[in-house]
Every structure is written in structure tokens, then in C-alpha cells.
Amino acid sequence: MNKTFTSKRPQPADRAFHSEAVEQKIIEVQAAIADPELAWLFANCYPNTLDTTVRMGKNAGGETDTCIITGDINAMWLRDATNQVWPYIPLASEDPLLQDMLEGVIRRQADCIRVDPYANAFMPDLEDAPHWASDYTEMRAGVHERKFEMDSLCAFLRLSAGFYEVCPESTVFDERWMEALQLVIQTFRVEQGVEESPYRFAREFDRPTETLQDGVGFPVKPCGMVKSYFRPSDDATTFKFLVPANVMAVVNLREVASMPPAKEVAGDLLLLADEIDAALKSHGTMTHPSFGEIYAYEVDGFGSVWVMDDANVPSLLSLPYLGYCEMNDPLYQNTRRFLWSENNPYFVRGKAGEGIGGPHVGPDWLWPMSIMVKALTTDDKDEIFDCLRQLRNTHAETGFMHESFHMDHAGRFSRKWFAWANSLFGELIIKLYHQNPELLQKKF
């Protein structure tokens, strides 16, 4: 039976934001995709952030202020917002409205960090009462959730550096941006453990991953890495030195240090990056009995390691995607073989697909995001095509990517509206369009 592929996008009048450059890119890339279902998925997913999650306004100074909600949760995660708009950055220089919107995202992220550098998610209105007001932590107006996730601050750095590369003339890198940048440096320094952290967090909840032991988590020994009390999944870390987040910091600190607007703190950024990188090399790996030397997921500085991976980015699988190492790096390749095997406690293989999940969704569930990252971190064309096949076949007739799906039943999934996964899928297809267009012409 032939399928019909009707657009799942909102009607033009109901879309949150319009970019002519993005619309032209959709037409251009769709025309290069032979499989109609894959082309339809791309056209639905790639603009989903713009269609549904952009909330634009003006700040007190009359400048554009852009809140990017995560999808079905009416709040802005710093990490999600960066990843949601990331695929549009290459088009910013040819679309003034898109550039303005992206400047608004950076401006909003800087304002969020100035409200609280320890918070991971913020209210659309930064004057609103906090959402998780019952948490045992210092909740401030405008904060949705206050789980300190190191990669949230890295997301601000990544977006700033990525946008500057395309639009170096932008005026968004102003005094408030610099104030936020200095808060990132200060927070990372504190969380290296040289001085006592002011951060405390506890939540009354029936899942242990939602809270911290005694409000601070298990002890660590300072080693040069920065503590992350929660993972990119919003789950509590076991050992607070989260290797993928520290890897991301090394890359992004160095990127921002090369930006002229950051020249007055460039030395501080580079010194911090070098210290974290040295600590990663000394403490961030372990010898696995089956795979040799691999990256650990978390360490505590005392010698203990937590060996796994979680589908959310930053992850160990994503290290080349983040720019930390080459895809063919032997240490990464050892790690990758471990990650995509039953030795990784959160690797899942079933009738519907295979990939990496995590504690956030539990056993038997895998994240499409892990399949996308696998395809983004290999040059094996057969492997990439297999990833495309899985993504094409597991959207459960919705036309969009999901947070996770059951390993045996793709029709059982979480989060019908999860814009980050849609953006990452669009990013993957565009990368293939530019680098491996022949894969988009293959038949499934």
C-alpha cells in the first residue's frame, strides 16, 4: 500500500517564526532525497523548532529577546535551546530576521545565567515565580529548575562561538554577555573544588535520580575537572566529574577564547580549558577487560569510575561531534565499540531498533538521538545508512522524532513534541546532503 505524506507542519499563519533561508533550504535538500518518507521526515523535523518553540519579544532596552521552549514543557533549557537552533546558524548571515532571532537566543541565555548560573531551565518570563518552588535549593524568580548541569553553561559558550563564526559583526557580544561569560568562568572555578561550593539541591520524589544525597551528592576529590551534579538527561550524576561535560567545556572554552569580544578573559578561558583537559587525560579513562583503554563516563577523583553512556549530548558517543577528537582516534574507537555493545548497561537492542538509552527512561527504551549521533560520528557509509533506516522506520507514523521508543515497539514512545531531537535529525540530513549526498539517493 502506498503511503501518503501530508506535511505535519503548522499552517504558515500558525508558525511561531518564519525564515526564508530555512524554507529555501528545505526545498533544496528535499529535492536531493530519493525516499519520499525520509524527505517528508526532514521537511517536518528540520523547521520544527522555528515552527513551534520560538517565543520572541523585546527586553527593557528594546532589543530582541528570544525564548526557545523545549517543546511539550513550557520552559527554556539552556542546552536544549542551543541544540534546537544549532542547524540554523549557517544560514544566519543570509537571513537578517534569522540572525536577529538567534541574537535574541544568546541574549536570553546571557540573561538566564545572570539570574542564576546554577539553573538548567528557565521560565519564558524571567520575572515569573519559579516552577519547582518546593525544591530544597535557592530558587529565584525566572528559574524553572535548578539542577546544576555543567553542559548548560557549555551550551551558552557553544552557541556564542558558533554564531560568532558566521556573524562576527553582531553586537550581541556586549557587557551583559561578558558578565555572563565571567559567571561561567567563576562557576567552573568554584566547582573544580578549590573552594567550597554554595550549591545544594534536594527534591522530594520517588526516583533517586531526581535528588542528591544529603543535598550535595557523593564526595569527590578535586582533580582539575569541574563537578556536574546532574547529567544532560536531568538525572543526578553518580560521580560528579562527568567526563562528556568536561570534554565539552574544553572545546567550548577554547572556542570562545579565540573570539575578539572575549579577549579580556581569553587567558582565563584557556588556562581553565588546559586544566580540565589535563585532568581528563589523567583521570577520565580506564582499562576495560574487553575493550582496552576507554573513556569513563563519570569519575570521582579518588580512582572510582562509572562506565556507561547516556543518549543525551554531551555523551561519550558524541566526542567527535563535539570537536574533542577525531572519529578514528583509537581511544574513541575503543570507547565506541564498548558503547554500542551489551557491556554498556544502557545499550538496547530489540525488534524495533538498537541504540543507547539511559536511566531517565529506564531499561528497554532507546533514544533516536543516539542513532543520530552514531551516524554523525562515523564515515562508514553502511553504518550511516543503517542509522537512516532505523530513524525512518521508528517515528511511529507521526512524522517526527521522539525522546525514546521501546526496543520492540516503536509505537510506544515518549514525548511527541521534543524539538531538540527534530533539530538534530535535520542537522544529520543536511550534513549528509553536503558531505555524502549519494546516501540520500539510496533506496531503502
Describe this protein with a few key phrases.
single chain; 444 residues; mainly alpha; Glycosyltransferase; 3-stranded antiparallel beta sheet; 14 helices; globular
What is the topology?
Elements: H1 20-30, H2 36-45, H3 48-52, E1 54-58, E2 64-68, E3 76-77, H4 78-85, H5 96-115, E4 121-122, E5 143-145, H6 150-166, H7 175-194, E6 241-242, H8 243-257, H9 266-283, E7 285-288, E8 292-295, E9 298-299, E10 305-306, H10 319-322, H11 330-339, E11 347-349, E12 354-356, E13 365-366, H12 368-376, H13 381-393, E14 404-406, E15 413-414, H14 419-435
Structure characterization notes:
Helices cover 40% and strands 10% of the residues. By secondary structure, it is mainly alpha-helical. The chain has a single domain (15-441), classed as Glycosyltransferase (Alpha/alpha barrel). Helix 4 (78-85) packs antiparallel against helix 5 (96-115).
Which class do the helix and strand fractions yield? mainly alpha
Q: Describe the largest sheet.
A: 3 strands, antiparallel
C-alpha Rg (nearest Å): 21 Å
Task: Specify the helix fraction band.
Answer: 25-40%
Number of domains: 1
Number of helices: 14
Q: What is the H/E string?
A: HHHEEEHHEEHHEHHEEEEHHEEEHHEEH
Portion of residues in beta strands equals 5-15%
CATH secondary-structure class: Mainly Alpha
Q: How far apart are the termini?
A: 16 Å
CATH architecture: Alpha/alpha barrel
Mean pLDDT over the full residue set? 97
